[in-house]
User: What shape does this take?
Amino acid sequence: MILLDLNKQQLQAYLQETLNVKRFVADQVFAWLNKGASFDQMTNVSLSTRQQLKQIAIDKPVKIVQTLTSKIDGTQKFLYQLHDGNVIEGVLMQYKYGNTLCVSTQVGCRMGCKFCASTIGGLVRNLTAGEILGQVVEVNALGKGERFVTNVVLMGSGEPLDNYDNVTKFLTLLSSPDGLNVSQRNVSLSTCGLVPQITQLADDGYSVNLTISLHSAKQENRQEIMPIANRYNLSQVMQASRYYFQQTGRRVIFEYTLIDGVNDTYSDALTLASLLRNMSAHVNLIRLNPVKETRLKSCGEANAKKFLSYLEKLKISATLRRQMGVDINGACGQLRRNYLETND
Ligand code: SAH
Assistant: This one.
């Protein structure tokens, strides 16, 4: 049993049933788990209880096995190992307003986007809620203060809405006042556009920031780089995004990775602007972080600035994001791929 999968009440019930542990002891265990402590470190819990716990449960579902720090901007990249030996990765970006941790939601991914390293090798398995939370807990424990990680983005490996039940359970645990108490305002969920689940997320009462990976406003072009576009077309994605905005009041962000010769012309900007016209939206432009297994090239910096200026002239709110951690395999899934290649 991964104890971080459980909320406080569930942990109380589980420990009561299995080991006849009293409620106040379960609460102590819950507090320790959220601090990233191992059973051995839970010093106010009796030694015999700790030994029994070790027999039946997992204290730390993810462990940091490698840390790379960017010399350029201080961005840190983590390689984590799961209890079954699988590895996943995460990135910590430090901004003036706080620290943002990018978490993975699956081992691998089955969405098949042409520019993305996470999807090479397909989906291995879903992460449980506790394995997603464990990433935040581990990195939080590196900081001295209680709230080292202030913001969380679900933009690591995996498609969060392809693992809907575990991801929403994680969102509830993360934002719980009993636990890490990270407000949903400080959480962003990025999706390649699973339409039914976008609607469901709003209907289930979640209010995280929604980011749609658009990458092209031309249907045919989008189908070429993102297989999911064959299942849900642009108008369905836009309809679901508007619905999410209406239900939550949260402005939807559109992620647009600029790929040389694929989606970076004036005509692409024009189509994008007309798609987002009359909508409360913001575009995040980022230059492709080239993945060696693909032939796709990053759009040049001058071209990216030009694309931004087209959008600005067309009165579309947009920013060109700095690439962070380019010297440490910053793009999704690259660190894990390197690890798998050298350990095969
Ligand atoms: N599956 C989700 C979240 C993970 S990817 C999604 O598709 O949104 C997070 C973001 O990084 C997405 O916008 C994704 O399209 C983008 N991305 C993936 N590989 C990239 C690369 N090599 N360079 C730049 N952005 C990339």
In short: The first helix runs from residue 8 to 19. The mean pLDDT is 94.
